[in-house]
Structures are given as structure tokens and as C-alpha cells.
Amino acid sequence: MKRYYSNLTVQVLTAIVLGVVVGGLFPHFGAALKPVADTFINLIKMLIAPIIFLTVVLGIAGMGSLKKVGRVGGKALLYFELVTTLALAIGIAAANITQPGTGVQATAQAALHDSKQATEAAKFTTQAGELNWVEFITHIVPTNVVEAFAKGDILQVLLFAVLFGLALNRLGESAQPLVKTFDRLSHAMFGVLGIVMKLAPLGAFGGMAFTIGKYGLATLLPLGKLMLVVYLTMFLFIFGVLNLILRAYQLRLGPYLGFIKEEILLVLGTSSSESALPRMIDKMERYGCSRSVAGLVIPTGYSFNLDGTSIYLSIAVIFLAQAFNIPLSLTQQLSLIAVLVVTSKGAAGVTGSGFIVLASTLAATKTIPVESVALLLGVDRFMSEARAITNVIGNGVATLIIAKSEGEFDEARHQLALQGHAVPEELRPEPVAELPRILKPHEQEPGQD
Question: Does residue 99 form part of some domain?
Fold first, then answer.
């Protein structure tokens, strides 16, 4: 019995249930628990930048061929674009079939005239106007590496880590002492993560109590159909599309979901996919993926492979058009998909990115009032869990697919993970591979660079 209650999955699930009860019975107290959840998420964010840096550097340094690094990155980006575009198309199809916005015109008009909701919506509308694709691209390159680490900017840290890893790879044998030091630091960072994860139940409790306490279940009723459509579409995407993708590579969805159940519950409680990012890198390694693939695909996917966000955004746009009685032609809907493909990347890593992307999409298409996002303010928090969970699951699937296609998947380690005999909870990454030695000019074969 003691072992059962010491299980992290049981602890987090119990904390979520208690959070719902406390938020429902004592809403003011529940709403005041937001700092508990925020503190836990900050503890996780504190570790994200160093863990990503060390994992990516060690992965690339030990990968051997630089061509392989480019091939893995190229495959990952191609996969991200194909799957997120498919998610957008599925979301628009689901919204057209179910018509979740039909019959909520009165609620929509009330939301526009509610001064508090209008003020909230205006903040996101202003931020949306400040976003553009060129700024997003240039922002990836940090002006100060230390500042990138201090701010926890994933894309900037990732770029620096890739460049640093490539440099170590080219240095060869002379870089080995530094690589071994980084390997020890990586073990230490995952050890710190193991300590922080003991507080996961508190974070999940505070996050769920805040959500229920502040927003209340009563706010769901007017837009209940929208929530149902979003949840069902994401459920079908996971158990339909992602399941088929895994089967095509001789993998099964059920065991994979069972293996990351703690991360899923953690995201459910905190409404933040970032809370699971460091653990997902480790879990994918333990599930059979190589360190280099897991270290590259997972962090990149957090900005470019947002399946859940894509589904939500496409449904939300069509929902708002229906709610405000604005008919959209097939051409306009296809244009929306094209715009969302771009805007869904442009707000990656920005606080409140779901609303910002939605507002920027409406501003770009000029067919639906940008202020209409006020209608979604009351229920967005309750849909953020579904978005975050789908994003996390989708990024794990992407990692498995890239690892399989590259021959970077260890079947023996995979079987150990399925049997519950994976690497212990200390969260130790794989050993660092020896770096290739750089040949001296007289040692090179003809045609070698």
C-alpha cells in the first residue's frame, strides 16, 4: 500500500481531484492558490534551458556525421509541417460538421459589450499586431547568449546549443574532456529535476484549484458544445491520426501513452506543456530513442509541432464565424489554414500565445472581428489542458518517428521500458558516445574533407 501511494502518477491524480474539490467548494481560496502552481512551473522552467543545452550539445557532439545532424533536423521540420497542417485541416472539418457556434449569437454579442472581457481581449489584440514572421525569424538569433539562458528562450538556447555541438563535433578528440564534463553536468541537472518532480502533486493541486476556483464550472455551460468539439477532435486526432502514424512504424499508441502517463497528468494539472518538457526528453531516451534525436526533436517541437494548438485555433476561428453569423467560403477557409500555418509558429513561446495567434489570424484575414476573441476568454483555460496534452503527446510521437526513420531507435531499451525495467527514476541519460577523431592531413584518404 505504501508503494502505491508513493507512485508519482497516483499522487498527481489525487492532487488533481483534490484541486477540483477545493476549487469547487472554496472558489476564493482555490483562486488564491495560483502562486503554488506558478512556483512549481518556475522550478521546471529554471531547468529547461540548461537541460536542453546540455542534451543537444552532447547529442550532436556524439553523433559523428554532421550530415546526419542536418538530415535529422530536416526530417523533423518536414514532419512538423505535414502533421500540423493536417491538424489544422481536421479542426476546420470538425467545426464545419458539428457547427459549435450555431445558436450562441446572443452570448457572442454580450461578450463584445462586456467591458471587462473587451479589455482582456484588447491586450491580446495589441500583442497580435506586434507579431510578424520576420521578427520571429530574427528573434531566434540571440544578441546575448547569457540573456537567452536568463529569459529561458527555448529557440535561442536551442540555436546556440546546435552551434556549440557542431563546434565540439568538429574539434574531435581534443573536445573529449569538455564533453565528459558536460555529461556529468547533464546527470546533475536530471538529478535536480528528480528532486523538483517530488513537488509535482503540489503544482497540479494548485493549478487545478485555481482554474476551478477562478473560472468555475458554470462558465462552461454557454460554450459547452465548443469545448466538447475541441476535446473530441483532439481525442480522435490522438487515437486516429497519431495512432496510425505509430502503427506505420511498428509502434503502438497504448504502451506509449502508458509510459508517459505521469507527464500527461502533470500537464493536465498545471495546464502547461512546459512542465513536462525536461521529463519528455528523458522519457523518450528511456523508451528507445537516441539522445541526439530526443534532444533535437522535443525542444524544436515545442515551437513548431503544436498539434493541439493547431486543432484548437482552426476550430476557434470557424466557431467565431458561426457565432457572429459570418459565412466563410471554401476558399476563405483554405486561406485560413494557410495563415494559421504561419501564425501558429510566429507566437511560439509567447505568454497567452493561443489568443495572440488567434487574434493575429483574424487581423490577417479581415473577415471576423478581432474583438470577437472576448467570447472565448471564459472557457479558454478549460481547453488549454487539452491543447497542452495533445502537444506533448504529438511531440513524443514525432521523436519516435524520426528516431525510427534514422535507425536511432534501440529496440532492446524499448522492450525494457515496456516491461517496466527502464533506467531508474534518477533520470540518467545515455552515456556520451566517443567523439570522432579528426584526421591529420597525411592520414586522410583521397576525397575526404
Answer: yes
The alpha carbon of residue 151 and the mean position of all alpha carbons in its chain are separated, in whole angstroms, by 18
Separation between Cα atoms, residue 336 and residue 373, nearest integer Å: 16
CA angle (422, 252, 277) in 5-degree steps: 55
Three-state SS at 320: helix
Domain of residue 140 covers 2-425
CA distance 314 to 307: 11
Please tell me the chain's helix, strand, coil percentages from 3-state DSSP, rounded to the nearest 5.
80, 0, 20
The DSSP code sequence of 172-191 is GGGGHHHHHHHHHHHHHHHH
Confidence grade of residue 132 (pLDDT, cut at 50, 70, 90):
low
Please report whether residue 336 resides in a domain.
Answer: yes
Task: For residues 262-269, give the mean pLDDT.
Answer: 88
CATH number of the structural domain spanning residue 349:
1.10.3860.10
Return the SS3 of 439.
coil
Number of domains within the chain: 1
User: What type of residue sits at position 243?
Assistant: N
By the 8 A CB rule, do 203 and 269 touch? yes
Query: Quick one: which of 115, 121, 102 has its CA closest to 373?
Result: 121
**Rg, the chain, Cα only:** 23
Q: Tell me the C-alpha distance between 275 and 193, whole Å.
A: 11
Query: What does the alpha-carbon distance between residue 438 and residue 441 come to, in Å, rounded to a whole number?
Result: 9
Q: Return the SS3 of 145.
A: helix
The tally of CA atoms less than 13 A away on the side-chain side of residue 21 is 6
Residue 134 lies in a domain: yes
| CA 272 from centroid of its chain's CA atoms | 8
Q: Which residues pair with 447 in a beta bridge?
A: none
DSSP string of 342-361, one letter each residue: HHHHHTTT-TTHHHHHHHHH
Confidence of residue 1 (pLDDT cuts 50, 70, 90): very low
Most confident of 6-20, 132-146, 399-413: 399-413
Mean pLDDT is highest, among 234-243, 327-336, 356-365, for 234-243
> pTM (2 decimals)?
0.78
Is residue 368 within 8 Å of residue 327, measured between CB atoms?
no
Mean pLDDT taken over the chain: 79
Residue 444, in any domain of the structure: no
